[in-house]
Design goal:
Layout: E1 2-10, E2 13-20, E3 23-29, E4 41-43, E5 49-54, E6 60-62, E7 64-69, H1 71-77, E8 81-82, H2 91-102, E9 107-112, H3 114-117, H4 122-128, E10 134-138, E11 143-146, H5 148-154, E12 171-173, E13 179-184, H6 187-194, H7 198-214, E14 217-222, H8 229-235, E15 241-246, H9 257-263, E16 265-272, H10 282-294, E17 299-303, H11 306-319, E18 325-328, H12 334-343, E19 346-349, H13 352-364, H14 377-381, E20 386-388, H15 399-408, H16 425-433, E21 446-449, H17 453-459, E22 465-470, E23 473-477
Helix pairs in contact: 1-7, 10-11, 11-12, 13-15, 15-16
């Protein structure tokens, strides 16, 4: 059955949009459907049945794309307890939160920051909860903190104090070889030993899909470095289109062509993680980039420090650029932005971090770098393709919050970080909406707001999303 969006605002005019077989069939004057009331099924071309939805003058937008998100981690986080700012701010509050959660069973806690109680080891966590497995994820996603019960449950420790992963440098150990409970970038070690049943994760993914649809998100790029055929099968539960990053060896064909087609899944860039204290060998990294290019893929390089960004830029300058991008560019001074522009790189940015973490940045970041934090205005001025994203669950999953942060750059306390990097509301929306024209033949990935565009730009709030469509199918309806 076809669909007509009647009386929606597009480019300042009130129009009606006919959708057929997942694409925009026509955009025309409202008079074409004035005889049909809202919800009426009427005869379309060739006798086709057509449903009519009254847009009531609300703005028609291109569907939003979150260009950097971690869907499975978000699904898990939605079922976890938060133990970091602003919900938890002191060591006593941290202990209370863990004990309350442990009363219900094994604990998975997220959002932790060392401001709360340092980086507790297994013994410190045992003093809070000893008889129930506790896993605490740092808000960066790079570090897990486990108590003794969790180390035993995951097989990373046994009665002699060593256990699986004894020779894995990501499992921190003391001088005697005993695991301290700190695991660095070791999600795969937990996943293989302590992953919930896939059906439970799938239920969580469906919840994530509904959450994103309510915000008008019709497409996501999952930027998880460890994506594989199993995780892609779970991502297929989303109603959104999905672009999947992963390692160089990741072959989306392993998932199955029917599933890929049905779920609108495409393979994305090769994800490269960088850490200041363990930068990879330069020539080997250049080789990985060239291999990705040879396979027809770009690379997406994680850069949250200036050290990482300068390393990535030199690698890409040496290897050449073919559809590559920088993830985060959390610290990017003017000379780095110039280099990004000259190389032809795109940047996936997360402006909401300025709102969520800005007060901590003001305390912790070198004052000389404050003006270079999560730049957006400078990137746009340099004509760098700039992609809006949330990095959820490590930031809010609400793209509208990110848009507001790009406009006002205000922290929770009301301070402003990087006044010169502010952008206009329309530019903030464009970070997520993109510039694909709404014309006949375009995919019907659309958002209908409950208010005109000028009103929506004045507040940038997800509550204005009335209708979300992916390939012409309604995936959210707030009417």
């Amino acid at each position: 059955m076809g669909l007509i969006l009647r009386d929606v605002e597009l480019d300042g005019s009130i129009v009606s949009v006919r959708i057929d077989r997942g694409v925009i069939a026509s955009i025309g004057d409202r008079a074409a459907v004035t005889a049909a009331g809202p919800g009426t099924v009427t005869a379309g071309p060739g006798g086709q049945r057509v449903e009519v939805i009254d847009g009531q003058g609300g703005a028609l937008l291109r569907g939003l794309h979150d260009h950097h998100i971690h869907v499975l981690a978000l699904a898990a986080a939605m079922r976890s307890v938060r133990v970091g700012p602003p919900e938890v701010g002191t060591a006593d509050e941290f202990a209370v939160a863990l004990r309350a959660a442990a009363a219900r069973g094994p604990v998975r806690a997220v959002g932790y920051h060392e401001r709360v109680a340092g980086l507790p080891d297994r013994d410190a966590l045992d003093r809070i909860v000893a008889d129930t497995a506790v896993r605490v994820q740092h808000r960066s996603g790079a570090l897990w903190l486990l108590n003794s019960a969790a180390l035993l449950a995951t097989g990373l420790d046994d009665q002699d104090g060593r256990g699986a992963g004894a020779d894995d440098p990501r499992v921190e150990r003391d001088a005697s070889g005993r695991a301290t409970g700190r695991l660095w970038r070791a999600d795969d070690l937990l996943r293989t030993r302590d992953t919930p049943i896939d059906a439970d994760i799938a239920d969580g993914v469906a919840s994530v899909g509904a959450l994103l649809a309510r915000a008008g998100v019709t497409a996501v790029t999952d930027a998880t470095v460890s994506n594989d055929a199993r995780t892609v099968a779970l991502l297929a539960e989303l109603p959104q289109r999905v672009r999947v990053m992963g390692p160089l060896e990741f072959d989306i064909g392993d998932v199955g062509s029917e599933l890929i087609a049905a779920a609108s899944i495409t393979r994305g860039e090769v994800k490269l993680l960088l850490d200041d204290d363990g930068l990879p060998e330069f020539d080997a990294t250049v080789a990985v980039v060239r291999s990705a290019h040879a396979a027809g893929r770009g690379v997406a390089v994680h850069c949250v420090t200036l050290v990482q960004l300068r390393f990535a830029l030199e690698v890409l300058r040496t290897a050449g650029v073919r559809g590559d991008r920088i993830e985060h560019a959390a610290v990017a001074p003017p000379d780095a932005i110039t280099a990004i522009g000259r190389l032809g790189l795109a940047v996936a940015t997360q402006p909401a971090f300025v709102a969520e973490r800005g007060d901590e940045y003001l305390d912790d970041v070198d004052p000389r770098d404050l003006g270079a934090l999560y730049p957006i205005g400078s990137l746009l001025a340099a004509a760098v393709p700039t992609l809006g994203s949330t990095d959820a669950p490590y930031g809010t999953a609400d793209p509208w919050t990110a848009m507001r942060a790009a406009v006002d750059r205000r922290t929770r306390s009301g301070a402003v970080v990087g006044t010169s990097e502010r952008i206009a509301p329309a530019a903030a929306l464009a970070l997520f909406e993109g510039d694909r024209p709404l014309v006949s033949g375009a995919p019907a990935d659309l958002v209908v707001l409950a208010v005109p565009r000028v009103t929506a730009l004045g507040r940038l709030d997800k509550s204005d999303v009335m209708l979300t469509l992916v390939a012409g199918d309604v995936v959210h309806d707030a009417r």
